[in-house]
Amino acid sequence: QMASLPRRGRIAAALTLVMIYLSFAWSSAALPLTGALNGNLRVVSLLLLVLELSVCIVGLDVFTGGLVGIARRRMGPESLVAASCLLSLLDAVVMAAAKPEGLGIPLSAVSAASMTAAIWGEYFGCKGLRTGFRVLSASKTLYTVTGETGITQDDVALLKSRRSVKGFIRRSEEADAGEYLYSVLTPILLAASLILGLLASVAHGHANAVVHCISMLCAAAATFSCTLCFALPFAVSAKKLFASGAAIAGWSGVRDIGRARHVVITDQDIFPRGTAEISRVRILEGAFTDKVISYTGSVIAASGCGLAAPFSELIRRNGYTISRVEGFEPHDGGGMTAVVNGETVCVGNTGFMNLMGIRLPQKLSTRSSVYTAINGSLVGIFTVEYKPVSSVQDALVLLLHSKLEPIFAIRDFNITPMMIKTKFKMPTDSFRFPAYAERYRISGAEPDGASRVAAVLAREGMGPLVDAAERGRRTYTGARAAAIVSAVGSVFGVLLLFLLCWLGAFESASASNVLIFMLLWLLPLILVVFGLER
């Protein structure tokens, strides 16, 4: 489906450019027309008829699909384009046969430009989908992003999980914002074009201009952006997201992300697997090494924090075993307590140990260490080395300037705002770190059974998650604005052309002027795409 679209789009664009030249040359003496084309309405109309018919054949799937949509009463932007082309073809036939004076030439160039835009809209839509589907095949273990309502009080929060990606493809193919909007607007615009066209011509004694007036109004209704308002921004965003290992499920996924106000950040997002390592283990005098390592690793594993993997690896490498943990409880002081084999175990940072009344030698106190106390006595110190990743730093910078509010549901007591500020060299005053009990609740949340996949991530870390969240939000805002502007342009175009036809100002409603008018309404979409490219 996609392979032939660029070639067809280029052919349609080349034919349309010839028609645009004819339209401007007919209105201006500055552009030359040679031979029979110079001032001969019949010849120019027949040439426009042949060229527009060629464009319709190149975009035959769009043309027939739009007409079938009208017949089945399931109209969309393609239906507007098809109706515009059909009426312009009919207008060219009437112009060539009757040669009415004072009406100008058919607006074939306008309709052909709308068809060309529709072909490229089909291409960009397919390109965005193909880029997203490639992410699905990039990794066997994918993360999913869903919009959940139970995490915060009122707003939607984006949650990353290991949920199945089932439904991603189906959601990607659902109707987008422009299709939703024009499914309602197209029947109204077509009816308005017919009624107002008859009113502006017959009611004013211009019976010979009936087809011309109706075709002009319908051509103005089929704005160039009506088939591009989501496809083009989505293709741009999909390409950018692919580079970071993320994909969004079409308009439905973009909408879910765009409505979210928070994004949940966990331990593995800040320091992905392999970036936190135990660089040194110190067992204090009188303590048993196997007991200290086993107890500490067991409590850390029970907490589910980002240090669980390196401590589990430490236990496995030394041939020890994970012990059963009871009465686990996180503390806001920066640590956790539990009962292991009937003994009370405290694991935490320097501040937590001081809070629990466990004395630490000054020379052994460091900011990135894990301290273990059994029955109130310090028994072990584990120095952890955290390696910052540039992609995480970029994501944190992006969050600083984003309207999304991150919720740092981090269980690792060493990862504090001060630590992030030091490691990643950036301010963290605006970042929200909930109380530890709240962090455990949020980070342990599972996707609701009714929630649907909004995006997939093929890589670990914070980069793909934040990139998908921010680009999805910007695509949602931009595509929705572009669709609304396009719809306003359609309505305004019909009303403006009706007024000109009503006044008999057909020279002002020339093909060249209407082309300029239509191109101006394309500017907002170009600005949206430019913003997404940055």
Descriptive overview:
This protein is of the alpha+beta class and 534 residues long. 55% of the residues lie in helices and 13% in strands. It has 20 helices and 12 strands. It has helices at 5-27, 41-58, 60-71, 77-98, 108-136, 168-172, 177-202, 210-221, 231-244, 250-258, 267-270, 289-303, 308-318, 350-355, 390-400, 417-424, 436-443, 462-503, 511-520, 523-533; strands spanning 143-148, 157-161, 246-248, 262-265, 276-283, 325-331, 335-340, 343-348, 369-374, 377-386, 405-408, 453-457. The strands form 2 sheets. A 6-stranded mixed β-sheet has the order 3-12-1-2-4-11, with helices on both faces. The chain has a 6-stranded antiparallel β-sheet with strand order 5-10-9-8-7-6. Strand 7 and strand 8 (343-348) form a beta hairpin. The longest helix is centred in the last third of the chain and has 42 residues, at 462-503. It is rod-shaped. The mean pLDDT is 91.
SSE diagram, text form:
Elements: H1 5-27, H2 41-58, H3 60-71, H4 77-98, H5 108-136, E1 143-148, E2 157-161, H6 168-172, H7 177-202, H8 210-221, H9 231-244, E3 246-248, H10 250-258, E4 262-265, H11 267-270, E5 276-283, H12 289-303, H13 308-318, E6 325-331, E7 335-340, E8 343-348, H14 350-355, E9 369-374, E10 377-386, H15 390-400, E11 405-408, H16 417-424, H17 436-443, E12 453-457, H18 462-503, H19 511-520, H20 523-533
Parallel strand pairs: 2-4, 4-11
Antiparallel strand pairs: 1-2, 1-12, 3-12, 5-10, 6-7, 7-8, 8-9, 9-10
Helix pairs in contact: 1-2, 1-5, 2-3, 2-4, 2-5, 3-4, 4-5, 4-7, 4-8, 5-9, 7-8, 7-18, 8-18, 9-18, 9-20, 10-18, 12-13, 15-18, 18-20
